[in-house]
Request: fold
Amino acid sequence: MLLILAAGCVCSAADAKPQQNKPEEYQVKAVYLYNFGRFVEWPLTAVKNDLFKICVLGNDPFGPILDTTLAGEVIENRKLVAMRIASTRDAAGCKVLFISSSEAAHLKEILKTVDKAAVLTVSDMPGFTNGGGMIQFVLQENKVRFEVNLTAAERSGLTLSSQLLKVATEIKKAPRSDDTNHD
Reply:
């Protein structure tokens, strides 16, 4: 249902006046963050607790929008909660990690730190998926869309549903460097 809501928000964001773009854009992105959590399967070894944490690392572009979007929602019988974190050390237990553009200078080390932690990494900074991030928000015709780096997600043990992949604008999948033919 919220995926339909996201689609509606995407359309309304396209019709918004420029001065209203930012709140609408991040409202759509907040709904997408929630929906990403619904369409990703984490490995059984992933950190389990009573909360489904969607974390923001760096400057928070969402403000109260993310908290409002997640209020009262549940995924995998766990209450959703938005958390703002100051470093990747605080990312343990996060299911979804939105990396703010303010962290661009540290992106490589951030991704290396969470690489095997079964955390879905998301950002709207340019080149995010090319740099090893999993999902990058992109604006196309004033609509919020996203592209996926499937290799990065699989390397972390995450399984993205085909429903999620169907709506991605681009799916990047590089051959694994450890894949060799042993015949």
